[in-house]
Amino acid sequence: MLHKFDGNRNRMNIVIAGAGQVGTHLARMLVKDDHDITMIDDDIERIDKIRNELDLMAICGSAHSFKDLKNAMQSHVDLFVAVTTAEERNVLSCSMASYLGAHKTIARINNSEYMEAGYRSKLLNMGIDELVYPEKLASQDIVSSLKLTAARQRVEFADGSLVMLAVKIRSNAPIVNLTFEQIAYKTKGVFAVAIKRAKETIIPGGKDYIRHGDVVYFVTKAEDQAQVLALAGKDIFEVKSVLFLGGSRIAQKAIEKIEGQFRIKVIDSDRKRCEYLADRFSDILVINGDGRDIELLKEENLESFDAFVATTGSSEANILSCHLAKAHQVKRTIAQVEYAEFSTIAEDMNIGTLINKKQIAASFIYKFTLDANISKIRFIPGSDAEVIEFRVRDNARITHGKLKDLNFPDNAKVGGIIRDTSAFIADGNTVFLPGDRVVVFTMPDCIKKLEKFF
After folding, report:
1. Which residues pair with 288 in a beta bridge?
2. How would CATH label the architecture of 13-132?
3. Domain ranges across the chain
4. Predicted model pTM
5. What does the alpha-carbon distance between residue 370 and residue 367 come to, in Å, rounded to a whole number?
6. How is residue 393 annotated by DSSP?
7. Residue 365 DSSP label
8. What angle do CA 35, 356, 60 make, to 5 degrees?
9. Which CATH architecture has domain 241-330?
10. Whose CB among 202, 312, 372, 399 lies 3.0–4.6 Å from 451's, allowing a Cys bridge?
């Protein structure tokens, strides 16, 4: 159950410490919702940039200075979010903000030690209500993508009983040139909720067609994933070997989950990191070298791997190395991108799955600003959309009739429902019950409208 705020929930007073990628993306999301946003950062260039781009209060100062923090928190603060790259500063500034009266605080961390159960009560006593660990969130996406190799994106809901799959449609796909009405008539347990066509994300109507090259977002039950891939003309294959370029914290968290399941090799240019990885993981091979060196990749038998995961600190290197892996017939490529601008470039280059830890983290934080009871919210890389898991409240508007009669927003689609332990796909005749968990694909301008339904 998410924390509830007092007072008027339609407009919140929010302070964001850190004007980097996480803070900036979060601010963009919140400004659209008409919240009062104050951003504080000690980099004047960042502050000037955000001040010119967004309608918010931007202050140049330090969030771990009482003087500067008081200046940023001149009125009651509903939510204080610290998302600088320095976790010690984030923890300290959240504690200080709580002392100064912030109603709820969220700190970005990059150390799994903070997530251990024994520290939870201590952090609460320090005034830190929630933690966001971008590397862990991003690693979960990598692991999920390795499980189902033919989908560009895979998001699980309710422990995997429902999934959203983003799949690029091949020319031989049986659904090419069919309307969404025709697809719904021909298939069971699968629902297409959106299309990414060129640079546009479309919430389709029944008369819209699917074209070759579209990226289509499907919601389906876990047991029906193979049907989705068949509809898209995709071949299913099992990943047995993975080559990681970069032994970053994201890579380490992913390897923790998959070591022993795959043959794993890691290439990293930092010798000390390589020594650390070799000591930490007994069942992987670690190579010290520059992964941008094409000859090195060839020497390490790049073409023999089923999957290639690039998680270096350079988005350009990650994208280009994945492109190279594709050229060497590696079936599954996953690239970490740090900037949203690179997503379009990567899409044009047909890079498989994109991981943006900062957008993932911003979406995780964003759910705490919504009035509806939300279990999960995810920004979809390369699109303008979000996928959200709502929990239906007692007497919620969505329980007042069949879905087709509720005047549900046009720019949103209900994909599926988890009721007790059962998952199923929604249609126009679906009636929702309190306690249902409902997966909705939506454009950002619809989120506030959706809150009123749940």
Report:
1. 268
2. 3-Layer(aba) Sandwich (3.40)
3. 13-132, 153-231, 241-330
4. 0.84
5. 5
6. P
7. H
8. 45
9. 3-Layer(aba) Sandwich (3.40)
10. 372
